[in-house]
Structures are given as C-alpha cells and as structure tokens.
Amino acid sequence: MPQKYNQVSAMWAIGKSTMRSIFRSPQAVFFSLFFPIVLIVIFGSLGGGGGLSLGIGFDQHSDTSNAVYQAIIRTPVFNVIKTNQADIDDRLKKGRITAIIDVRKSGNDNGKEQFDVHLLTTSASQKDLQVLTTILRDIISGINSQLNPGSYDYATISQEQIPGRIYRMIDFYLPGMLGFSLIGSAIFGVSFLFFSLRETLVLKRMFASPIGKAYIVLGDGIGRILFNLTTATVLILFGRFFYQFTLSDGVFTFIELMILSILGLIVFMGFGYSIASLAKNQNVIPIYANLFMFPQYFLSGTFFPKTSLPQSIQWLINALPLTALNDAMRKVSFEGAHLNNCLPQIGVLVIWGLVIYVLAIKVFKWE
Description:
The protein is of the alpha/beta class and 367 residues long. Helices cover 61% and strands 10% of the residues.
C-alpha cells in the first residue's frame, strides 16, 4: 500500500536546501554577516559615548519665566521632551535624553534676580553632556553680557549625576545593523531566488509535484529564517564580547531579540515575494528593492538617531517597518523592556505584514 506523501518532510527538505544554498552564496554571507560586522567595528571604535541626540527635559518645578529658559527652548539643537515628569525621569535613566534641566532662582543681587541652571544627568549621557554644557554656557554667557555687561552673572550652571547604565555607541548601532542585515537579506534574497526559480520553470515543476504551494513557501521561509538567526546570533555575540553591547536581562533579552528578528524577517520576506512577482526581469529587482529599503536606512534610525530629522516627518518615520524593528530592539536590549512593552512597534510590523502578504498572495506567480 503506497505511503501518503509527507508534506512536512518535503517542507523541511526545501528549508535545508535553502539554508545550504544561502550559506554557499558569498554575496549573501558578505552582506548579511561580514558587512554589518565591518560597520560594527567602525562604529564601535568611535568611542564609548552615547547617541547623537541632544534630547533634554525640564523639571516640573523649573522656573519658566526667565531669559535662560526662553533661550533654551528656542535653540534648535535641543529636542525638548514635553511630557509628564515620570516619563522624563524614565527617559533619563534609560539614556534616551541627555539631561533634565531645572532652572532655579539662586539669589538676588541689589534687586536683580539670579538663576542656577541645574543639570541632572546619568552615566549614560557623559559624552553628550560636554556638548550640552558648552551650548548652555554660550547661551548663558550671551545673556549675561546682554543683561549685565561687566556686572554679576545672571545665571550659572551646576551639575548632578545619578546612577545609570552606560550607553555606548554600540548600543545604538548594533540593533540598527541587525535591522540592516535582516531587511537586505530577506528582500534581496527572496526576490532574486523566487524570480530565478520562476524564470527557470523550477517553481512550475514544484507546483506540479505533490508538495503543496504553502509548504514550498514555508520551506523556503524556514531556511531563510534559520540562516538569518544564525547571522543575528553572531552579530550580537560579536558586539557583546568585543564592544560590551548591552543585553539588559542576559539570555532573556537575547531570546526576545531573536523573536523580534523572526517577526521582522517574516514581514520583510513578504516584500521579497511581492517584488519577485511584480518584476519583469532581474534588472528591475534592485530598483524595486532599493526604493523600499534605502529611504528606511536613512529615516529609520539605522545609522543616526531619527530625532535628528524634522519633527514634521516623525509620524512617517514611526510608521516604517524598519523603524519599528530598530526601536523595539533598542528598547529590549538597552532599556530592559520586554515584548509586551513594545506593542506599538510590534503592531506596526503586524500591520505591514498583513498588508504585504495580501499583496503577495494577489500578485504571486508560479511561472
């Protein structure tokens, strides 16, 4: 009596074949693993400081009627966080802002008010703190010269540091490199492979075989996920042991990063399937892929903080799938957040996934 065809075994065979073929591809290994490692070495060697954003918050008891406060909020280089005090304190402890500023009345000289600009910082903000204090001293110096030339100081600066996790450049760049690796491997890998299989009629022959269509796609997806999880593991361990990349909760953080990587890969592969079906020839695949990927490389906080970009387009930036993946990975790795704390970012990825797979199913071609 003939045995029933085993769809699961066929799916795993396709998955293993896909993973082997990717590992044997110099281009895939270079762009998924070695190129991100080179970037990590470059960025990791730049220093041990924090991010590039001069985010600040004001203490809720800060005096807002003086010239120093008005000058600070009008300075374009500062990204003033306007939220509740608990959120500002939390951002400071997690290294997401440089300092909390409290402008206090410090005295009175012959009827003239004096103020102290008190900076509350953490160990996470020491590199940016130098830039911040330099700008503040210039602002205060200008105000002192304007209001009281040659007389008393209208305002002075004082500092206080509270304990905080050290925020290194690698803590910003490595999650970005993970996203860079995942989106490139998923979109380019899937689109070129499936277009090639379709053009050589391999997909048509597979379609005529006993294995179901869904198992063919699942098999390729499993193989690609296993390959990318391997490269993600290497990148994380490389950053951890060579540049002290922060895994806030150790193994649990690593597992959550893997889960986010799988979710990101599934979403990005949907774009690869769609591009493979929409492309008329191999020459247009890089064009379609880069139209989707390149804007995200520069808008989604891969190489520099998204807060450096205009506030007017932040809504668009936060709606991009790579932004959601990068933000979630940074929150999990450095801030100690868990997946349930990243529901807005996960929601963005899920929405993109639903939309792109509806499109992929609609346009997918077997020949």
